[in-house]
Amino acid sequence: MKLVVLGSPGVGKGTYTQELVQKYNLLHISTGDLFRENLKSETELGVQAKSFMDAGQLVPDEVTIGMVKERLSRDDANDNFVLDGFPRTIAQAEALTDITPIDMVINFKADKDVILGRLGGRIICRKCGQIFHKQNIPPKQDGICDTCGGELYERDDDKPEAIEKRLVVYEEQTSPLIGFYTEKGLLREVTVNEDFGTHKEEIMNRIFKVIDEK
Ligand code: AMP
Question: What is the pTM of this model?
Answer without folding.
Answer: 0.90
